[in-house]
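Milestone 3.1: sequence recovery, worked example.
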C-alpha cells in the first residue's frame, strides 16, 4: 500500500484529497440534518459517496486518470450545488475546489472545469446578495485559479524533468536499468495475460576497454551513442533498448520467437559488424538471447540471457548465443 502511494503521484493526491474531503464534509453533512436542512444534507451525502467511489475505483483499478477526473467533476458539481442550495454561506467551498482540480486532472482540463463551475454559480441568481458580490466572487475565483494553474504547471514540468533524469541514461538517451526493471516486469505480466512471446537480448561490445584505453573515453562514448543509433534504426518501434551498465545493453523484443528471432538477431549482428566503427577499425559485439518461458520470473529470464552472453564471450566473442527454455545453451553459427 505504501509502495503504491510512494510511486503513484496521482493516487497519493487522490487518496489525500479524498480522505481530507471525507473528514471535512462528514461533520457538515451531519450538521445539515441536525439543523433541519435535509436537502443540503443529502447534497453532502451525494458528494461524499462520489468521493468514496472515486477513491475505491482508483485503488481497485489503478486508473487514476479516470478517477481523478471523476473526483474533480464531483467536487466542482458539489461546490456549485452547495452554493446554489446554501447561498452566500456555501460559496466559500468553491475556493478549495478551484485549487484541488489542478492536482486531479491536467492543468488545461482543471482550468476548463473551474471556469464552468464559476460560470454555473454566477448564473444562479439566488447565490449572491448583490451584483458587486457576484463580480468580487468571479474576480477572486479567477485569481485563485490562475495562481493554481501557474503552480500546477511548474510542478508538472519539474516532475517530468525529475522523471526524465531518473529513468534516462544521459549519454545515450535510452532508458536506464531502473526503467528496464519496470518494463521487464510489465512485459512478463503481459506475456502471462496475452500469451505474446517476448525475447530479451543482452548485448555487450567486445574489447571496449581497449577502445577507451587507446583512443580515450570520448571515442568510447561515441561508439556507445553510435551503437544505440544503429540499434534504434534497425529495430521496430515496439522494441525497447536499455543501458544495463557500462558497454552492456538490453534489448526487449515483443512478439518474436523461433526463426523470426534468429532473423532479427542475424540482421542486427550484420548491421553492427558493418557500421559500428572506431578509428582502429570495426567494433564487434556479443549477444545472449533468451525467450521468456511460461511463468518464468524476470530474474531467471535475465540470468539466462546473461549466461548466454557469457557463453558468447567465452567462445570467441562477436557471436549470438541463444539460451533455450531450460537454460541449456544453444550456440548458433556466427
Ligand atoms: N567511454 C566510456 N566507457 C565506459 C563507460 N562505461 C563503462 N565504460 C568502460 O567500459 C569498459 C568495459 O570493460 P570490460 O568490462 O573489461 O569489457 P571489454 O573490454 O569490453 O571486454 P569484453 O566485454 O570481455 O569483450 C571499461 O573500461 C569501462 O571504463 C562510458 O559511459 N563511456
Amino acid at each position: 500500500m505504501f509502495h503504491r502511494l510512494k510511486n503513484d503521484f496521482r493516487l497519493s493526491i487522490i487518496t489525500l484529497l479524498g480522505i481530507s474531503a471525507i473528514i471535512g464534509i462528514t461533520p457538515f453533512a451531519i450538521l445539515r440534518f441536525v439543523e433541519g436542512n435535509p436537502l443540503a444534507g443529502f447534497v453532502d451525502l451525494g458528494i461524499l459517496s462520489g468521493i468514496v467511489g472515486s477513491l475505491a475505483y482508483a485503488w481497485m483499478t489503478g486508473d487514476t486518470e479516470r478517477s481523478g477526473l471523476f473526483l474533480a467533476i464531483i467536487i466542482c458539481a458539489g461546490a456549485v450545488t452547495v452554493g446554489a442550495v446554501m447561498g452566500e454561506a456555501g460559496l466559500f467551498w468553491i475556493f478549495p475546489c478551484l485549487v484541488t482540480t489542478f492536482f486531479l486532472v491536467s492543468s488545461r482540463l482543471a482550468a476548463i472545469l473551474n471556469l464552468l463551475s464559476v460560470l454555473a454559480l454566477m448564473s444562479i441568481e439566488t447565490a449572491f446578495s448583490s451584483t458587486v458580490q457576484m463580480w468580487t466572487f468571479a474576480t477572486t475565483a479567477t485569481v485563485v485559479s490562475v495562481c493554481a494553474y501557474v503552480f500546477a504547471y511548474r510542478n508538472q514540468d519539474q516532475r517530468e524533468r525529475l522523471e526524465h533524469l531518473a529513468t534516462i541514461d544521459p549519454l545515450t538517451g535510452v532508458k536506464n536499468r531502473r526503467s528496464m526493471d519496470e518494463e521487464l516486469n510489465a512485459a512478463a505480466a503481459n506475456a502471462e495475460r496475452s500469451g505474446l512471446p517476448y525475447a530479451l537480448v543482452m548485448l555487450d561490445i567486445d574489447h571496449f576497454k581497449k577502445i577507451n584505453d587507446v583512443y580515450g573515453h570520448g571515442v568510447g562514448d561515441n561508439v556507445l551513442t553510435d551503437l544505440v543509433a544503429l540499434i534504434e534504426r534497425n529495430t521496430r518501434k515496439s522494441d525497447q533498448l536499455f543501458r544495463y551498465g557500462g558497454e552492456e545493453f538490453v534489448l526487449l523484443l515483443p512478439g518474436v520467437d523461433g526463426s523470426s528471432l534468429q532473423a532479427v538477431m542475424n540482421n542486427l549482428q550484420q548491421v553492427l559488424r558493418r557500421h559500428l566503427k572506431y578509428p582502429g577499425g570495426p567494433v564487434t559485439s556479443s549477444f545472449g538471447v533468451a525467450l521468456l518461458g511460461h511463468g518464468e520470473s524476470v530474474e531467471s529470464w535475465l540470468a539466462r540471457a546473461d549466461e548466454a552472453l557469457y557463453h558468447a564471450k567465452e567462445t570467441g566473442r562477436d557471436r549470438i548465443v541463444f539460451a533455450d527454455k531450460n537454460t541449456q545453451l544453444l550456440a548458433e553459427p556466427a
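Residues 171, 204-209, 212, 217, 220-221, 224, 246-247, 313, 317 surround guanosine-5'-triphosphate (CB under 6 Å). The domain at 177-331 is CATH 3.30.70.270 (Alpha-Beta Plaits).
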